[in-house]
Amino acid sequence: SPLTACTRCRLQYVPVKGDHVIGIVTGKVGDVFRLDVGGSEQASLSYLAFEGATKRNRPNVQVGDLIYGQFLVANKDMEPEMVCIDSSGRASGMGVIGQDGFLFKVSLGLIRKLLAPKCEIIQELSQLYPFELVLGMNGRIWVKAKTVQQTLIIVNILEACEYMTAEQRKQALAKLSGN
């Protein structure tokens, strides 16, 4: 039925020009990497779209690597194209993400909430333990804390945030920090 087709589209990320996303390198064709960005088709990323990249100085990118980048081209008639540099040629935090973190998926609604300026959830979590966090507009989150246990606690809290009120979240965090 047309209804099921519609619900399926909503679950799939649709690339938007300028969106910062986390992609997974699935292959390399010539000078172009192919990335799974969670959409209906793969995105392309030129090896020259990294800070300081030249024909001689190529970025070290392997199949399976996670890449944080942004869409340069995203429209329904063309294959999505990603870059790992801003308009002035700087990486600005984009590029290959460390291997030893944890990648998971959440709803696009939760991602928007987490990306909002002064997000309370992130502020509260950062008082728990130090951790690194990469948020992709495509619903992917990469997180890494000092230990695997701390990483998984942060993952669980972020996943649960979707269904918790601010009050429930504060209580859960208070229990974890031992207050």
TrEMBL record:
Domain of life where this protein originates: Eukaryota
Keywords attached to this entry: Cytoplasm, Exosome, Nucleus, RNA-binding, rRNA processing
UniProt-listed Gene3D superfamilies: K Homology domain, type 1 (3.30.1370.10), Nucleic acid-binding proteins (2.40.50.140)
A single GO cellular-component term on record: nucleolus
GO molecular function, one term: RNA binding
Localization of this protein: Cytoplasm; Nucleus, Nucleolus
Main location (coarse class): cytoplasm
GO biological processes: CUT catabolic process; exonucleolytic trimming to generate mature 3'-end of 5.8S rRNA from tricistronic rRNA transcript (SSU-rRNA, 5.8S rRNA, LSU-rRNA); nuclear polyadenylation-dependent rRNA catabolic process; poly(A)-dependent snoRNA 3'-end processing; regulation of gene expression; TRAMP-dependent tRNA surveillance pathway; U4 snRNA 3'-end processing
Similarity section: Belongs to the RRP40 family.
Protein name: Exosome complex component RRP40
Source species of the chain: Bambusicola thoracicus
